[in-house]
Specification:
22% strand, single chain, alpha+beta
């Protein structure tokens, strides 16, 4: 049995966390690996086992909380896991409770994990271009502050997502960002076909800087370009595959010792 690959960010230190890809799971076929997405057509038992393995790789015995992600800037406080059909519609979570894993599912969008170790507050955000532009990371930071975190202590890591060389967009997409801030031109370059290519992780990193975040780590891993390691919605679409898997990024506060 292959081990679950756990990618960690140095900025998060000893905080239990990990950006997981597709390695170490039991799903087969086009979704082979550690697919954790109930929205896929994968076997439910395989997804359940993959989620169990993901939890065990980060914080054995923890409970997992996920939300119904809708590409918004909405954030919720988590005091326990929800039933699958009762998850709130949101794209960021925060908690100050130990032993509870916050899980963000992605397949090209960026997972962003946050921690203020001194305050004992963590957060997790799902940042596709819509959520990023709408300010989902700002909303997560503000919600962490409400629980006692401080921006000058919060650290953040931007995990595997689609990178600029793989992220061709159209001119209307580019104009949305320029309308929001003309300085956003720096996140676009012409691609081989002449269309703009967008730097999602770069945009998120720069957006976190004026928010006052102490340190930001961008892992620089391209989900589209590495099919052996990551799921990618865009790659599956380009290949004409009927379905695509989802990977999970996890963060928790360690359980308090008795």
């Amino acid at each position: 049995m292959s081990a679950v690959e756990v990618i960690r960010a140095s900025v998060l230190g000893a905080v239990p966390h990990g950006f997981l890809g597709r390695r170490g799971g039991v799903s087969t076929g086009d979704l082979a690996g550690l697919n954790v997405g109930y929205g896929s057509n994968d076997d439910r038992a395989a997804i359940d086992e993959n989620r169990r393995r993901a939890i065990a790789a980060i914080l054995p015995g923890a409970e997992l909380a996920t939300v119904h992600q809708v590409h918004s800037a909405d954030v919720v406080y988590v005091d326990g896991p929800w039933l699958q059909d009762q998850r709130p519609r949101a794209d960021a979570m925060v908690t100050d409770l130990p032993g509870l894993l916050l899980g963000i599912l992605t397949a090209d969008c960026a997972p962003v994990l946050f921690a203020d170790v001194e305050a004992g507050v963590i957060g997790a955000a799902h940042a596709g271009w819509r959520g990023a532009l709408a300010g989902v990371t700002d909303a997560a930071i503000a919600a962490m502050e409400q629980r006692g975190a401080r921006r000058d202590r919060i650290v953040a890591a931007v995990g595997p997502c689609i990178a600029q060389p793989s992220y061709e967009v159209d001119e209307a997409f580019r104009e949305r960002f320029l309308d929001a801030d003309p300085a956003n031109f720096r996140f676009f370059v012409p691609g081989p076909a002449g269309k703009p290519h967008f730097d999602l992780p770069g945009y998120l990193a720069i957006r976190l800087d004026p928010a006052g975040i102490a340190r930001v780590d961008v892992l620089g891993l391209d989900t589209y370009a590495d099919p052996d390691r990551f799921y990618s919605y865009r790659r599956a679409t380009h290949r004409g595959e009927p379905d695509y898997g989802r990977q999970v990024s996890l963060i928790a506060l360690p359980a308090k010792s008795a």
